Amino acid sequence: MADHKDVDQITGVETTGHSWDGIKELNNPLPRWWLWTFYATIVFALVYTILYPAWPLVNSATSGLLGWSSRGELAEETAAANAARAGQLEQIASLSVEEINADPDLRTVAIAGGRAAFKVNCVQCHGSGAEGWPGYPNLNDDAWIWGGSLEAIHTTLDHGIRYASDDDTRISEMPAFGRDGILDRAQIDAVAAYVLSLSGNAGDEAAAEQGQVVFAENCAACHGETGEGVKEIGAPALNDAIWLYGGTKADIVRQVSGPRHGVMPAWGQRLGETTVKELTVYVHSLGGGE
């Protein structure tokens, strides 16, 4: 016995036998273009899974007949980029930072490389814009404890500051005038008042006058008679209102009593001479280089 077919009387098209609220679903065939597109995607998927990595396994995945991988492609592109820069990097390695900075093309390459190295190694302490934090110097201004010339910056980066494993590291130590009993509390308060006055901060004039004597006897040998600093020994200027550990009287009293001393790695040991030169040119280009 033949199956009964329900045909829509208006269109003459066979229905699927389903209806909703009296509306019957017509059994129209799919468009040819849609079917061929669907079949093409199936073929494409099969070819793709054969040629490229596709199916996950326990510890890896199918590698595909072409042996392609995103990591391999990245390695090839990196190698090509390094090959293109090889000549310039060799020049940077062989020239002084002054010679690199004087060559417009090499300077551009060095700044680009230094910026990348800075983002990886330096932003954690100096900030993404090299603006610094309390205890970490701002590299955009022209206040340099050890000097802001290309040579001075290179030496600082190469050997670090108070970095124990480098014999040529920068070292400067300020005595703990309070903790070691060199000055009493009244003398420390007075010298703090005088140090504030050096940068134009009005305060207790009588205390500042007393502090001037204390400063001349204990501090001027390193910081200079007028607090201008001595870069050769890493003694910061005190007359520019730029403070590494804070510029309030309480901050100054704390630093004079028990000074804090920062540490920076010797980047030459970690990054190599070429990258240190690139970093030098980049930091010098930030605007505060001498």
Automatic annotation (TrEMBL):
It is found in: Cell inner membrane. The chain crosses the membrane at residues 33-55. Residues 109-199, 206-287 form the Cytochrome c domain. Keywords: Cell inner membrane, Cell membrane, Electron transport, Heme, Hydrogen ion transport, Ion transport, Iron, Membrane, Metal-binding, Oxidoreductase, Repeat, Respiratory chain, Transmembrane, Transmembrane helix, Transport. Pathway: Energy metabolism; oxidative phosphorylation. InterPro entries: CcoP_N, CcoP_N_sf, Cyt_c-like_dom, Cyt_c-like_dom_sf, Cyt_C_IC, Cyt_c_oxidase_cbb3_su3, Cytochrome_c_Oxidase_Subunit. Binds 2 heme C groups per subunit. Its cofactor is heme c. PROSITE patterns: CYTC. Signal peptide: none annotated. PANTHER family: CBB3-TYPE CYTOCHROME C OXIDASE SUBUNIT FIXP. Component of the cbb3-type cytochrome c oxidase at least composed of FixN, FixO, FixQ and FixP. C-type cytochrome. Part of the cbb3-type cytochrome c oxidase complex. FixP subunit is required for transferring electrons from donor cytochrome c via its heme groups to FixO subunit. From there, electrons are shuttled to the catalytic binuclear center of FixN subunit where oxygen reduction takes place. The complex also functions as a proton pump. Belongs to the CcoP / FixP family. This is Cbb3-type cytochrome c oxidase subunit. It comes from Jiella pelagia.
